[in-house]
Specification:
With 352 residues, the chain is of the alpha/beta class. 31% of the residues lie in helices and 23% in strands. The protein has helices at residues 7-15, 71-78, 104-110, 128-138, 143-156, 161-164, 174-186, 204-221, 232-238, 256-261, 266-273, 314-318; strands at 20-35, 40-56, 60-64, 86-91, 94-95, 111-114, 192-196, 224-228, 241-246, 249-255, 324-326, 329-334. The protein binds iron/sulfur cluster. Iron/sulfur cluster binds next to loops.
Length: 352
């Protein structure tokens, strides 16, 4: 990886005030599109482009955005399930994958992931007890001790080990399977859990149970969460801070209460206005998002949201906005010319 010192990364690094447990700078991943007689690269899907953020120890960072915005690719890059084109990730102050940093294998013990599809995440031929004990056994923990740990974890995630430990994935409900996945993720005693749409496939009643379980486990095991979801209500319920992504880039990041009560970026405002609310006070009267997101193979120039933004101006198509603080709250950052002093946008505040 490179040092990831893009303008956005540098600006974010300079401003963020939290003590980072996970520090992401200038992360970038383009997927080549092959074609032609010679099967050459003819284009690139710009899945993640210059993404930077921090996660503090013990917090839950929610990541939201439409399908295809790069949320899940970001999660896979954090776990190094795919190699980034550039950018850096530090875990607890150590650069992941560097000679003098933290080896990827060691990082994967401390950072675990729970996926959306609870069935394909499990080995259909392994009973529950073996599934949960597998990781510790691979990492050298004696089999009896690993099995005892598995039984304890099953109990902690709300499954009676005596009833469930010999069952196979097809004998479990979706909620039970996801509990097993959480137990398996905890089996190596990680410090960070990345939850990628982990409750999205569950029925609403089961979803609430698993969410509350995750909140309890976070306290009990002293965990840090990166919680990825397209469900804005769920993200609000579990998160301390929220990061909003659009077409592979971060457009807004800040404390959850601040962003949900006072969203600044036009995309965040449109996104939040599209969620149903029973409370008229909480409804944001904003023009709804129109049209589909642009093709990530050929994203719009300048601000990638300008083709759908009601406030777009000539400067928006020309220059890419950089994440900057707005007002006094240094924790709330927005990438929008309209909010950047001296950006050239007619609605931008005057430079101080
Ligand atoms: Fe809209 Fe321009 Fe702001 Fe982008 S930079 S969100 S196009 S006003």
């Amino acid at each position: 990886m490179t040092d990831g010192s893009s303008p956005g990364a540098a600006a974010t690094a300079a401003r963020q005030r939290i003590d980072p447990f996970l520090e992401v700078r200038g992360l970038k991943k383009y997927f080549p599109v092959k074609g032609g007689v010679l099967n050459r690269t003819i284009a690139n899907v710009q899945a993640v482009d210059d993404v930077s953020f921090d996660v503090a120890k013990g917090e839950t960072l929610g990541i939201v955005g439409e399908s295809g915005c790069g949320k899940s690719t970001t999660a896979r890059l954090l776990m190094r399930l795919i190699e980034p084109d550039s950018g850096t990730v530090h875990f607890d102050g150590r650069l992941i994958g560097a000679d003098n940093g933290i080896p990827i294998r060691e990082m994967r013990r401390q950072v675990q992931m729970v996926f959306q599809d609870s069935y394909s995440s499990l080995n259909a031929r392994l009973p529950v007890e073996e599934t949960v004990a597998f990781g510790p056994i691979v990492h050298g923990i004696p089999r009896p001790e690993a099995r005892e740990r598995a039984r304890r974890l099953l109990y902690d995630v709300g499954l009676d080990a005596s009833r469930f430990m010999k069952r196979y994935p097809h004998e479990l409900s979706g909620g039970q399977r996801q509990r097993v996945n959480v137990a398996r993720a905890l089996a190596l005693q990680p410090r960070i859990l990345i939850l990628d749409e982990a409750v999205s496939a569950l029925d609403k009643s089961v979803e609430a149970q698993v969410l509350n379980l995750l909140l309890d486990l976070k306290q009990e095991y002293d965990l840090t969460y990166v919680f990825i979801s397209h469900d804005l209500n769920v993200v609000q319920y579990v998160s301390d801070r929220v990061l909003v992504m659009y077409l592979g880039q971060v457009v807004e990041i800040g404390p959850v209460d601040e962003i949900y009560a006072n969203p600044r970026h036009p995309y965040t405002r449109a996104l939040l206005s599209s969620r149903p609310s029973m409370d008229p006070e909480l409804r944001i009267t904003e023009p709804p998002l129109s049209g589909d997101p642009p093709n990530p193979i050929n994203p719009p120039s300048g601000c990638r949201f300008h083709t759908r933004c009601a406030f777009a101006n000539e400067v928006c198509a020309r220059a890419s906005p950089v994440l900057s603080t707005f007002g006094d709250d240094t924790r709330h950052e927005i990438a929008c010319h309209m909010l950047s002093p001296g950006s050239g946008h007619p609605d931008a505040p005057a430079p101080s």
